[in-house]
């Protein structure tokens, strides 16, 4: 099922149609430059642009999602997840709830495990994310396993990253709104 999250408040320039992508790119580049400068000065805290994230996962993998949320609390990273997990049955009230959470999110993360590609709820969340124009990013929960990626993600050439907090933070900071 899904969930979402966010981090520190950051005000991005908005146009009448949503986020101004040129301003966002500029702010991301500025953030990366500042991060590189801090790393060179040996400061330990790394900051990334704040994002609201919808997390799609097979309920059998919920412990790994909890671990990701816990790791995201690392003081070196300015990235937090608020728990929006939907635990109801895959029916209309659940779909309405997930639609709203996806709408509030910047993009969707799909936690890729052994059976993720088979789960109807995950397939629906991916399809709904794409329907709403959200970028979908896959995280392989087990780097030594080559579990099947959901078909919609393959068709859209979704970005896939192994579970490494630094790599995850980097790909999320590069993600479009």
Set out the fold topology.
Layout: E1 2-3, E2 14-15, E3 18-19, H1 21-40, E4 53-56, H2 62-71, H3 92-104, E5 107-112, H4 120-131, E6 135-140, H5 151-155, E7 159-162, H6 165-174
Parallel strand pairs: 4-5, 5-6, 6-7
Antiparallel strand pairs: 1-4, 2-3
If you compute it from the alpha carbons, what radius of gyration comes out, rounded to the nearest whole angstrom?
16 Å
Number of strands: 7
Count of individual domains: 1
- The succession of helices and strands, N to C, reads EEEHEHHEHEHEH
How is this structure best summarized?
The protein has 177 residues and is an alpha/beta fold. Helix content is 40%, strand content 15%.
Characterization of this structure:
40% of the residues lie in helices and 15% in strands. By secondary structure, the protein is α/β, with parallel strands linked by helices. The chain has a single domain (2-8, 51-174), classed as Toll/interleukin-1 receptor homology (TIR) domain (Rossmann fold). The strands form two sheets. Strands 1-4-5-6-7 form a five-stranded mixed beta sheet, with helices on both faces. The chain has a two-stranded antiparallel ribbon with strand order 2-3. A hairpin with a 2-residue loop joins strand 2 (14-15) and strand 3. It starts with a strand and ends with a helix.
Kindly list the characteristics that best describe this protein.
single chain, 177 residues, alpha/beta, Rossmann fold, two-stranded antiparallel ribbon, 7 strands
């Amino acid at each position: 099922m899904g969930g979402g999250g966010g981090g520190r408040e950051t005000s991005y320039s908005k146009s009448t149609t949503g986020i101004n992508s040129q301003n966002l790119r500029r702010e991301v580049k500025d953030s990366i430059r500042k991060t590189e400068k801090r790393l060179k000065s040996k400061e330990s805290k790394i900051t990334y642009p704040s994002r609201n994230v919808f997390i799609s996962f097979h309920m059998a993998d919920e412990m790994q999602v909890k671990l990701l949320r816990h790791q995201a609390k690392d003081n070196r990273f300015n990235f937090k997840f608020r728990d929006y997990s939907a635990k109801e049955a895959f029916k209309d009230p659940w779909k309405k709830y997930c639609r709203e959470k996806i709408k509030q999110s910047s993009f969707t993360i799909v936690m890729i495990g052994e059976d993720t590609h088979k789960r109807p709820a995950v397939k629906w969340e991916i399809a709904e994310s794409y329907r709403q124009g959200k970028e979908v990013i896959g995280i392989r929960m087990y780097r030594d396993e080559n579990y099947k990626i959901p078909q919609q993600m393959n068709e859209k050439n979704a970005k896939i990253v192994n579970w490494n907090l630094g790599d995850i933070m980097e790909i999320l900071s590069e993600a479009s709104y």
